[in-house]
Amino acid sequence: MTQTSDQNDAELARSVALAAGAVLRGLCVAGACPDAELGDRGDKDANTLIQRLLRAARPEDFILSEEAADDGARCAASRVWVVDPLDGTREFRERRDDWAVHIGLAIDGVPVTGAVALPAQNLVFASNDRPDVLPPAPLRPRMVVSRSRAHPIVLRVAEAIGAELVPMGSAGAKAMAVVRGNAEIYLHAGGQYEWDNCAPVAVALAAGLHASRIDGATLVYNCRDPLLPDVLICRPEYAAQVLAAVAETIPVVG
């Protein structure tokens, strides 16, 4: 298709994530939005901006957003932007710093491009970044997990491999902790949708990390049903160990 902008897709994803992040930060300013409305207002305002920017830059592409009606016509499209305007609404409402903006692009089901902004930390990660050189893998890996509801599979795998648990908020923040070298493993089971992990997976793969379903299967996007309930993002040297532990754990908790 003919591009309608001189930005490449990764730079577009980065700029849109940053713009949405700026809107969300503005809502957090004291007096800008009543606390009781902060989460809903953040979801709505960020989604409105993202839709406008992407449609202006790539009018022929489709968009799958957590905060918009799903146009089933996207299923026949090659290029689909998969976005979460505000990942970690709970953390955003609490004015923590571990919420994110996800802008991903799947081409023929493959998460080829993405950007994840952590606006409260003034950080953004994109699939065209030069990957950081990670330090040597520690003997005891760190696994980022949900602050309040880590799935039994995740807890059993962590115990099996001797991982240190690091509670954290949004999926984007957890995935970027691995990209940044602040953790080695992000294992999630029990329920996500494509918008929860498309952009983080694109960034992680571009950084040379392992990303798959928790049974080792390839992650596929732009499916008719956007439910994508589990994901593993980790340093490659831990992938086989984690996948083996999952395989041994699932019959126990299933």
UniProtKB/TrEMBL annotation:
Annotated signal sequence range: none
Record has Iron as a keyword: no
SUPFAM superfamilies tied to this protein: Carbohydrate phosphatase
Pfam families: Inositol_P
Catalysis: reaction(s): adenosine 3',5'-bisphosphate + H2O = AMP + phosphate
Keyword Transport: no
Keywords from the UniProt entry: Magnesium, Metal-binding
CDD domains: CysQ
PANTHER family listed in its UniProt record: 3'(2'),5'-BISPHOSPHATE NUCLEOTIDASE 1 (PTHR43028)
Protein name: 3'(2'),5-bisphosphonucleoside 3'(2')-phosphohydrolase
Organism from which the protein derives: Sphingomonas psychrolutea
